Amino acid sequence: MRRTTSLRAREGTLTIHARQGASMGDRRDPTAVDFGRRGRVGIVAFLLAWSLILPAVADDFVVRDDIVSDPNVDLLDPEFDSEEGLVVWQDLTGQMWLAQVDLVSGDLLPQDGRGELLDTGLAPIGFTGNGPEFGYGLEGPVIGYTRLIGLTRWLATATRDAQGTWRPRLQTNGADRYRPEGTPVENLGLNPARLVYVRNDETLGFVSSWRDLAGQEVEGTSTTGQGGRWLGRDFRFTAFQEVDGINQIVEVDAATGATRSVSTSPGLKGGAFNWYPPEFGGDLGVVGLIDFEALGVWRERAGEWELVSTFTVPSEKPFLSSPEAFVVNGRSYITLVAADVLAELFPGQPVGPSEIWITGLDPGQGFYRRIDDPLTVEQKSEPEPFVLTSEAVVYYTEKPEDSGIRLLRRAATGLEAQLQYGDLAYGGDWANGLRGPRNCACAPFDIPDTHLEVFTEDPGGIVPYRHATGADGNTYTPVQSLAGGTAFAALDALGAEAFRIDDATLGQQIAETSPLVDANGDIYIAAESAVTKLDAQGNVLWQTPTAGLARAPAFAPDGNLLLFTWNGWGYVIAPRTGDVLLERRLVQREVGETFSCVALDQPNLCIYLTAPVVNGKANRIYVTQNLGGGSSVLQAWRYIPAAGDGTAPALRRAWLGASPVIAGPASAPVASADGTRLYVQDGAGTLHAFAANDGTALWDFALGFSAADPPTVSAGGFLMPGGTGTSAPGYNRVSILEDLGDSAAWRLRLNDYAPASASAVGNDDRFVLAARRRATGELTLLSVDPGGQVRVSPWGEGAQTPAGLGSINLTANGGVTVTVAGSAPRLKRFTAGAPSPLDAPR
């Protein structure tokens, strides 16, 4: 339980630096806020009462608290951008550095934090009260910071140009302006970024001022507090103002300068943090400190602010500092510091041994957890929550007493992402096995030793190499007649046609695109200039025009429909209604006798011909583009889901450096099971591996044949190359290779069998594909693993037909569906249980 007797020892006056400024009327440099007994009676009585009902902190949580920075580098006040996994900070010499966070491990890249030098000559943090901060706008991420020109603090920003290079600049009329805060992520892609900052006015003293980066010469000013923090995407921010002798949280309308109270309860307020709690149904929330001893949570409901809860944490340390809210799995949590003493020189920061805690938004939840290592009795400050691909962590600064070098630590919260890799809001592992989120036929299904043919069906046309299998077992495929017309057909689990819809009905050419099936059995078909949603009976639910053909739609991390069109557009579409949530031209091209790309910022990027990888945990999208010069490029995009206030989703570049260029045509990317690696196969016969976090090339492997088809990757890191013996004459042996980390090596090569279709992989690193006996040309269905266990099942009807084979899908019950193209087009379905398994010769 929390000690209440410690309150007596703290009566009197304590000088505390508030991060967002001093009380109104204090015209000194805004670093000190005085409070004594004002407003204390109510909060002390509340804490005494609350201590009687606080639940004990007892759960199965195990502390994982690691140093992630170089122990020889004094890493001061890092600021995190969770949208692109960036970290910005300034060192003691005034240099500003940019680094990255590995979204899977949470490691700092590089470990010393010195990834890219952005600027020099920054004002010391002791002279400004804060280091560089991220903001967001139409410009993408923006960094606001303070330069030192002579002895004058000067407002400065760094923004990214069209090529992705960070460009620092001093702001016009920036003298005596410092400690900027940028607009939050909800403003990304909507309005120009804005800054609110402290200005030293000769007449008014220290005041809050703000500006729009697109019109930086226009400045607004308010005398309420100094500096602030923007509220959502609205043109207003929270600040502090003394009301009846008590420092309160107020909001400032940056359009008019008018103020409105957020807090009105007793107790000095500080450390306000604004966010959209999912629990508030789209309303704004503010968490702040009351007398630096308790947390208050305010909600804006129907245009009015109200205090919804007041609580503390069950720590023996009486003071609280630096609350920040974050959201995991649709619930809000707050991280904060508990300390014995708060500093005079820095804004409410702890002095001496302190603790890092997380708590739930609602005290009724009874959730309180200390997450730092209790064996390190040091000064711990500035907690920064960050959601990795698998869990939420909190980064914080530790200052060991013996060395004085500030270290960056990462503490696990025990809040793991509930979604498993590949789980999506509107689909499951059955949703187009050819292109699950990892972008290959990689599903957590068991592949039996042997298979038995169920049906071979001619759907009445040439079947392209693209089909999908729904949760109901139906197979969905575009078909093209020899006369040139196209249609879309559905076959049930026994091969009977469930429905058919032709291109005349849809008004669109259907063939050569991949359908997508959601958990309800609804189907999404992208065609030449529209995407259409059908129900499981083939009825059109909606049709939405697009600027071009999207060869392969996918589900975005939040369940929306994601499209990359051949002519360079990105779309996010609401799957329920067909409403366009995002329509963004990512590249440009012109078509003449030959095509050329004309985008000024990306002169070589042209058409999207392949499906994307979707990493739902990391909110990352990876996709291959064909370049104007015949080469290809692997791109990474950050998917930014819509905020609770109805803002649109967005796509932003995810890698700091240049995207890797691949000679010649290249396949769609395929992700490893943990999402940390990407594999691309090129038309020159090379398989490439890249690091998903930054695009670094890890290894190249010469396959000995040329096929720009995606490989298949098992959970254990084994790969079967893409292509078939028909499409790539040199691919004459069924082969498996292994990713060894910094290289790859063959693990299995079957001399008697050549691949005749794409492959799929299930549990236990077992692959399945159609393969042809090289001696007889007879088709078989082959299951094989890297250890050399090989099983052969009879192909059944058409085993001697010299047909081309395409995609292959798995089902949860061990079934396999293969497309058979060529002069005898077929869809072939197998199920588990051939009567007599055959060991294949090696």
Please tag this protein with its features.
disordered C terminus, 6-stranded antiparallel sheet, 842 residues, disordered N terminus, 5-stranded antiparallel sheet, 3 helices
Structure description:
This protein is mainly beta. It has three helices and 68 strands. A hairpin with a 3-residue loop joins strand 22 and strand 23. The radius of gyration is 30 Å and the shape is elongated.
How are the secondary structure elements laid out?
Elements: E1 14-16, E2 33-35, H1 40-51, E3 65-67, E4 79-81, E5 86-90, E6 96-101, E7 108-109, E8 116-119, H2 125-128, E9 133-137, E10 140-149, E11 152-160, E12 166-175, E13 177-182, E14 194-201, E15 205-212, E16 215-222, E17 229-230, E18 236-243, E19 246-253, E20 259-261, E21 269-275, E22 285-290, E23 294-301, E24 304-311, E25 319-328, E26 331-342, E27 350-360, E28 368-370, E29 379-387, E30 391-399, E31 407-416, E32 451-457, E33 468-469, E34 475-480, E35 486-491, E36 497-502, H3 503-506, E37 516-517, E38 523-526, E39 530-534, E40 540-545, E41 554-555, E42 561-564, E43 569-573, E44 580-585, E45 589-590, E46 596-597, E47 605-608, E48 613-615, E49 620-627, E50 632-640, E51 650-653, E52 661-662, E53 670-671, E54 677-681, E55 686-691, E56 697-702, E57 712-713, E58 718-720, E59 734-739, E60 744-750, E61 753-761, E62 767-773, E63 779-784, E64 790-794, E65 805-810, E66 816-820, E67 826-832, E68 838-839
Antiparallel strand pairs: 1-2, 3-31, 4-5, 5-6, 6-7, 6-8, 9-10, 10-11, 11-12, 13-14, 14-15, 15-16, 17-18, 18-19, 19-20, 21-22, 22-23, 23-24, 25-26, 26-27, 27-28, 29-30, 30-31, 32-67, 33-34, 34-35, 35-36, 37-38, 38-39, 39-40, 41-42, 42-43, 43-44, 45-46, 47-49, 48-49, 49-50, 50-51, 50-52, 53-54, ...
